[in-house]
Specification:
The chain has 16 helices and 27 strands. Strands 1, 2, 3, 4, 7, 10, 11, 12, 13 and 14 form a 10-stranded mixed β-sheet that branches. A 6-stranded antiparallel barrel has the order 22-23-26-25-24-27. Strands 17-16-15-18-19 form a 5-stranded parallel β-sheet, sandwiched between helices. A hairpin with a 2-residue loop joins strand 24 and strand 25 (453-462).
Length: 531
């Protein structure tokens, strides 16, 4: 389970109490909150679960909005009404007096954290020292108050709203306001209304979360593990293979992003939609690791993987657009292909994006499809589906042209039946990775990356029917000019060209004769490539 939960923390609970309750409800261990709320406080507490825990620090850095109540004339050891009263006095202060002094608290400033806080000094929390009766010198923190607004005043109680930076102690602010008015003050109530774009109106109490979880409505309260700190220019889709059609979209995105000073970002679905809905496995052009690495190499500063599940697939397109793209990923410019689709049953499209652009404040660029010619000279769209078809037909050269690079298979060298070694054609065998598309059964000219060195190779993909019937699919490569034990080592195959289809040989001698012809072909092709 991965995601972000906007929890409404109720009074009387610690932030740790909330995590403990969520672990019980969700049966998940890996989670963290994004900023402590004291037991007397209530309101927004963001909790990151699973992979989303990597966003804890970023979410803690967000600006916050609070409603606070302070009581004038009372001083406590904790700076709030839960502490021991140190002194009391009657006050007679007008609202006008308060309005005069509030502006001095606006802007950047230093604030000394209270002794009763979770700040650490030499590995020990300040509140632990305070409970031992110790008061120590604390270094001031840099904070910023963006706005202060009086909501109500009935002396001695003042209720006000604060818009501030992270690390601001509202208790200390209340105390300082009292001192500025020539009296004492302590915080008597606190409500956190907002953390960044996460607000009270979108929060869920623990009881609501438990009820929704029990009803199988997790997608109602759990936001996907996606978050951007900065305004972005973004494209989204599966992008299987990152072919020339995808690269056309990327090029436009990078150009516009540079001109507008936006962070180049991509959101990629981690499960192929057709596999999700059909229940059948869809072999892909890239494994998830390869996919992420290629997106990094393409130049994206932010890469988001959207977990497409049966739950998230039910998300209405408008909700995906507003909650994921606009709010979570801070999209200011979308760059998409003409056939982009999103949301429940793919009902979201370019038309919807155009209709919502002004409302949500983003710019939209639609990139036309990249085209190519098929073997019969017909114009076709460059697509992952078409490239998979090429590979399934053994047309690895055409696939390479449309991918902008040779198609690859990678794996760890395993033990085979050693038939090739007996006829002077030793092979390195790798197992096909689950979910990764293998080209059509046949023999191919390949280039082999082993360690940091490249070799020419002759690769057979097939079931070795000449050796025995009903064999599993194997990938065997004879590496030209290489000798040595490489079992357990990783190698990568780049498919250069198709040599021939698999065929059944009547005996080992006939197989050896054909392999010698295949080897001669590879050696000749290698010479042509070098010249």
């Amino acid at each position: 389970m991965d995601g972000i939960i906007n929890v409404y923390k109720e009074k009387g609970m610690t932030s740790f109490d909330v995590l403990r309750a969520l672990r019980r409800i969700l049966r998940e261990k890996k989670m963290g909150h994004t900023g402590t709320l004291d037991p007397m406080a209530e309101g927004v507490l963001l909790v990151c679960v699973g992979k989303a825990t990597k966003y804890v620090d970023a979410l803690m850095a967000k600006e916050k909005i609070y409603q606070a109540e302070l009581t004038l004339g009372i001083e406590t050891d904790t700076e709030d009404s839960t502490g021991k009263i140190l002194s009391e006095e009657e006050v007679s202060i007008s609202k006008e007096d308060i309005e005069k002094i509030l502006p001095r608290f606006l802007g950047k400033q230093e604030q000394i954290p209270p002794m009763y806080s979770a700040k650490k000094l030499e590995g020990k929390k300040l509140y632990e020292l305070a409970r031992e009766g110790k008061t120590v010198e604390r270094k001031p923190s840099q904070i910023e108050i963006f706005a202060l607004e009086i909501l109500s005043y009935d002396c001695p109680k003042l209720r006000f709203r604060i818009h501030c930076s992270k690390g601001t102690y509202i208790r200390t602010l209340c105390k300082d306001i009292g001192e500025a008015l020539g009296t004492k003050a302590c915080m008597s109530a606190l409500l956190r209304e907002q953390v960044g774009e996460f607000s009270l109106k979108n929060s869920f109490s623990l009881s609501e979360i438990e009820k929704l979880e029990g009803a199988g409505e997790r997608d109602t309260y759990l936001l996907p593990p996606l978050y951007s700190q900065k305004d972005s220019i973004l494209t989204f889709g599966k992008f299987d293979g990152l072919h020339l059609g995808h690269q056309k979209i990327f090029e436009e995105l990078f150009k516009e992003g540079k001109a507008e000073n936006l962070v180049p970002s991509v959101l990629s679905f981690t499960t192929h939609p057709s596999a999700l809905f059909s229940g059948e496995r869809q072999d892909l052009l890239c494994t998830e690791d390869e996919h992420y690495t290629r997106l990094q190499n393409a130049g994206f500063s932010q890469i988001f993987l959207f977990p497409l599940t049966l739950e998230t697939a039910k998300m209405p397109p408008e909700k995906f657009l507003e909650d994921i793209l606009v709010k979570a990923l801070k999209v200011k410019h979308l760059v998409v292909g003409t056939d982009c689709s999103f949301g429940y049953k793919g009902k979201g499209d370019v038309v919807l994006l155009q209709e919502k652009a002004e409302e949500f404040g983003y710019k939209l660029t639609v990139v036309e499809k990249a085209l190519t010619k098929d073997s019969e000279g017909n114009s076709v769209e460059i697509s992952s589906t078409y490239i998979r078809k090429c590979l399934e037909e053994g047309a690895v050269e055409e696939a390479a042209r449309l991918l902008g690079r040779h198609y690859t298979l990678s794996g760890t060298v395993v033990h085979g039946k050693k038939i090739g070694r007996s006829i002077n054609f030793p092979t390195a065998n790798i197992l096909p990775k689950e979910g990764k598309l293998c080209p059509m059964e046949g023999v191919y000219h390949t280039r082999v990356l082993l360690g940091k060195d490249y070799y020419e190779g002759m690769t057979s993909i097939g079931k070795n029917s000449s050796v025995a019937e009903n064999n599993p699919l194997t990938i065997e490569t004879h590496i030209l000019g290489f000798q040595g034990d490489i079992y357990g080592e990783k190698l990568r195959l780049e498919f250069i060209s198709f040599i021939r289809e698999q065929r059944h040989f009547k005996d080992i001698e006939e197989l050896k004769s054909q392999l010698e012809k295949d080897l001669a072909f590879v050696e000749e092709e290698s010479k042509k490539r070098e010249s």
